[in-house]
Amino acid sequence: MSIISEDLLQSSSPHMKASEYPDFNRTMKVVSAGPDELQYPGEPVKHGYIVQFEGAPKAIWLSKSNLKAMVKVFGNDTDAWAGKQVLLTVKNYDIEGKKTIGWITTPIAEGSAAFDDAIPF
């Protein structure tokens, strides 16, 4: 019998891949965020932004939609995102007939119901 090592199943990407966490749905705390570069063999360098969450093994690469959502709630100074809460989940997509899984970031505004410890009665 041959046992497959978990290391072989993990991506060599420098970023967390949603496909490796298909059932992920958790509120996470931002440790840091900022610009990064990504380059796949034979392709030009891609400039974008990443977010490192507390307890996560790697940062996630923000899609333009996720970046816009984060900026709308937290502002455009990524240094100020540290300590903020984000609901991080995954979504299945069908892009030009190719099925894939991507990250969805839902930033939680301070003072929203998610931060309200009061019992509503």
Core attributes:
OB fold (Dihydrolipoamide Acetyltransferase, E2P); 121 residues; globular; disordered C terminus; single chain; mainly beta
Q: In terms of per-residue confidence, which ranges show pLDDT below 50 for 5 or more consecutive residues?
A: 115-121
The total beta strand count reads 5
CA-CA gap between termini = 59 Å
What is the element string, with H for helices and E for strands? HEEEHEE
Shape: globular
How are the strands of the biggest sheet laid out side by side?
Answer: 3-2-1-4-5
CATH architectural type: Beta Barrel
- Summarize the amount of helix as a percent range: 10-25%
Structural class: mainly beta
Give the class-level CATH name: Mainly Beta
Determine the number of helices (DSSP H or I, runs of at least 4 residues).
2
Find the CATH topology. OB fold (Dihydrolipoamide Acetyltransferase, E2P)
Which radius of gyration do the C-alpha atoms yield? 16 Å
Can you put this structure into words, describing what you see?
The chain is mainly beta and 121 residues long. The chain is built from two helices and five strands, in the order H-E-E-E-H-E-E. The protein has one domain (16-111): OB fold (Dihydrolipoamide Acetyltransferase, E2P) (Beta Barrel). It has helices at residues 6-9, 64-74; strands at 25-38, 46-53, 60-62, 85-95, 98-108. Strands 3-2-1-4-5 form a five-stranded antiparallel β-sheet. Strand 2 and strand 3 (60-62) form a beta hairpin. It starts with 5 loop residues before the first helix and ends in a 13-residue tail after the last strand.
